[in-house]
Amino acid sequence: MVLKTRYAPILIAIAGLFLILQSGSCNNTYSQTRPLNFKTENPEVEKIDGLQTAIQIQNVFREIARSVMPAVVSINVESEVAVQNPFPDMFRDDPFFRRFFGDPGEEQKRPMQAHGSGFIFTTDGYLFSNHHVVDKATKITVTLSDDRVFDATVIGTDPETDIAILKIEGENLPVAALGNATESEVGDWVIAIGNPFGLAGTYTFGTVSAIGRPGMQSGFQQFIQTDTPVNPGNSGGPLVNIRGQVIGINTAIHSRTGGYMGISFAVPIETAKNVAFQIVETGRVVRGYLGVVPGELDATTRETFRLRDNEGVLISRVEPDSPAEKSGLKMGDIITKVNNTPVNRPDRLQREIGELPPGSEVNIEILRENRRQTIKVTLTRRPVGDEWTRDRRPDREPEEEKPSGTVEFHGATFEAPSSQYLQRHGAEYGVVVANVERGSIFAGVLRRGEIVVGVNGETIRNIDDIQRFADRNKNARAFTFMIVREGFLVYRSVRRR
What is the pLDDT along the chain (497 residues), one digit of tens a residue? Predict the structure, then answer.
């Protein structure tokens, strides 16, 4: 009896375990013999005539993912940013505080990490990405879809198109096929693949919304606009067509929040190829340089100068010691053609000039004082970065002279500027806008402080010129002003009702 009592708890536990196992076995048997009747087909959809076509299209997108994704890489960028002591007057003598923030006024280097995308376009490891992704990087790490990791080298970048060429050393590297962006049309299906928010291999789908959108940084950008979802981290990744070919490099979004809002932009692959050829061959991109700042013309201004619709680009300023200045081009000239190719927008003029090599002799057709003429210009190399010297203001500004004389015309008051004021704003002559009344026909057209150097094709050198113009044109219906502000010339026009 003692033995039975001692082992009784053990026997009871074994019996309980047996019952649990039996219960599970019964339940298992029940689930196998009495399966739930899950619905597996949707007959309403299955009978649709176009279903098989849709499935075939779906298979195309699946194959694009399988074939292109291996060549798309995630890019991790390490860099340093300079920060200053945010509390220069606090804890000046505190060693603990100075350890983290440095001495007052001293810059501190802080590490920073960022993510982007790219894709391999040659078997020996050349990659496309964006300049803004790798700019100022101290270390770049590239991760492939098969989890291989490589250190990448920047071969070269082109800030004006936001293209970067990187290089990795590896074997059996996958390569993306490059297509032809010029064949793309509005409505085409496109796919973006990249690393948004660090989520590698993200695949999104949309359509081409517009072709040839002007760039954000320079006239050398000519974007493909799409509604494909693109977010921070997608930059540098491929935009792919329905044939599985890369037609662009995802570069920017239009957003008020920092995230996707239905508009994204990609640099056409033709632009990227041209940059790659030059960078791989010479280490940099070289473009022709004219030396003018181009400006837009509106419809009223074109009508005033008897130009055709969408004809002409204004020279807002001529850079000193540039090919344009040496050839005799002047601020206020309207360029209508470059080597017989019509130009109608500043970005179009920049591209026509930039695509020509330095040393090229170019025929520039202009409109000056209502007469067309052609001027020959020999281009030089376009400066980049720190080579630009646009600020021509003197180091020390002289004392202002008191202007004298004013003219009132249709609610706007003009006065004679001092020579110092003209020099500071980059004008040789003109009259300054002193005031514009709220109800004036020139309200919204003229702004206080601007220098008027011409109206309706007539040169305005001084206060007497604007007085004579006002006396003769009280009943004129349209006015086109040539205005200089901070060294730039613009045309602004208004028509009376």
Answer: 444 556 565 556 566 555 555 555 555 545 556 778 888 889 999 999 999 999 999 999 999 999 999 999 999 999 877 766 555 555 555 665 555 555 665 666 778 888 999 999 999 999 999 999 999 899 999 999 999 999 999 999 998 899 999 999 999 999 999 999 999 999 999 999 999 998 999 999 999 999 988 765 566 778 999 999 999 999 999 999 999 999 999 998 887 777 778 899 999 999 999 999 999 998 888 899 999 988 888 888 888 888 998 899 999 888 989 999 999 999 889 999 999 999 998 888 988 998 898 999 999 999 998 899 999 999 999 886 544 333 333 333 444 454 568 999 999 999 999 888 888 887 888 999 999 998 899 988 898 999 999 998 888 999 999 999 999 998 888 899 989 877 788 888 888 77
Q: Which domain holds residue 253?
A: 181-282
User: Please, what is the end-to-end C-alpha distance for the chain in angstroms?
Assistant: 120
DSSP string, 61-76: HHHHHHHHGGGEEEEE
Domain assignment present for 217: yes
Clarify whether residues 333 and 377 are in a common domain: yes
- The residues carrying an active-site annotation are 132, 162, 235
**391, part of any domain:** no
Burial of 263 (0-12, 13-18, 19+ CB in 10 A): middle
Number of domains in the chain: 4
- Give dist(CA 53, CA 49) in Å, integer: 8
